[in-house]
Amino acid sequence: MPAPSQGPARSRVLTGDTPTGRLHLGHYVGSLENRLALQEKHDCFFLLANMHAFTTRADKADDIRRDTIEIVKDWLAAGIDPAKSTIVLQTEVPAIAELTWFFAMLLPFNRVMRNPTLKTEIETKDLGDTYSFGFPMYAVGQCADILAFRPVFVPVGEDQVAHIEMCREVARRFDQVYCGVNPKTEDKDYARGGGVFPIPEALVGRIGRLVGVDGTNKMSKSLGNAIFLSDTPKEVQKKVGKIFTGRQSPTAPGDVNNALFQYVRAFIRDEARVRELEDRYTRGDNLGDGHVKQEVAEWINKLLEPMRARRAEFEKPGGDDAVIDIIRAGTKRANAV
Ligand code: TRP
Considering only CA atoms, which of 337, 39, 14 is closest in space to residue 152? Predict the structure, then answer.
């Protein structure tokens, strides 16, 4: 496979996913969509954070392997193109583990434990105080995932911004301590000021937090409120039909800040139509939830249709091997970088 096209002008992008299961629409609007645009203009690295999966499932290595292959199928289905972007397997890049060790010395322990994303995760995953030593360590590891590639941008969902902030702190500290960069240097000048690591920037997608079909919580596989990129048209229709609004009748004035209208704005890619629906809904102009849901489901299915077609290619016999070849080629290139 040819190496992704790369000119000196192409600045780098890195992001990753922890292989925990199939990707959903929240991933799409939060980050995947950005990645598709970025791969056209940047040298993109997409990391399979399988080591992170071990922080909560160390006894499930086989599942992690399977989830890793599945997530690549989701990426490829969504349009990540291995001829343009590099897909990287974390466990096969030793530099990441090495950097993690050194970065762990540059962050106060209490700073890591105060990381709000970690805290939320401990709560929502009900980890109590029995989580492994390695669990909070993944946040330090994530700094290494990123900085090993010296990217300028890190496209992520809103929940990851706290991690990127920590990564920026480590980069500054490393550059100051080991490269003599003046602490007064502006973030954009760290590389020019002699730093090994440029200070990367988080890029949050069009919709940083997509509500799930339960209408209240963030879309998430573990909460059972997700529409997956691999769902069938029927499943999509059924799930969209479940979005709870609490509205009584098509002639009652509706609230366009409800969950259903978050979907309208996220997936109906026709501005004029969105305005029209919002207007009629607000006025209670005989616009039923059922009708709006039908339209939302059609748009989502239109988005997912080409993904279903691309995915089908990898579901054929030999599909897993093709995916593994792509991972191998990308990881080889990543190790060179
Ligand atoms: N922690 C991220 C998540 O759960 C996945 C991830 C691992 C990541 N390494 C990364 C994201 C580096 C951005 C950059 O979604």
Answer: 14
